[in-house]
Predict the structure.
Amino acid sequence: MSTTRLSEVADMFDQGMSITAIAEELGMSEGTVRSDLHKLGKDTRRPSKNPNEEQIVLQYQTAKPVSDILREYNLSYAQLYAILDRRDIPLRKHTAKITSAERLAQAIELYKSGQELWFIKNETGIAQPTLHAEIHRLGIPLRKPRRKPEIEAEQEVPNENE
């Protein structure tokens, strides 16, 4: 490979000629032209065919759900991630969502440890009827309901009419 050929390839590419046109002009393969351009540090990726790339990137960066972006711009996942890669946009981290089965198992453990139903609901999002049904399904004995102290005190006072 000569430096003359490299500079010629670079000049043609910088003037806007496609890799195919350069290869035909110089009697080279497209792979060789592309390789020469890479050696020169030239970006040979094709320009975007989507005129809305800026808007797509902005929506991705502002946490719009990926499924909504794909639907709105009629893109595939591969197309979206290619756009983000071209623009060096870091991918959002995928947060592992706890499944309902995992939340239910957590609620059962909290119940077994003696936690109150309101606390279990706040911690896991599992409502009392769902928790109660799972407790029965698993054969876990129900706890005796807790009584408020003032109710217990009233029950201990003998009735004067007896």
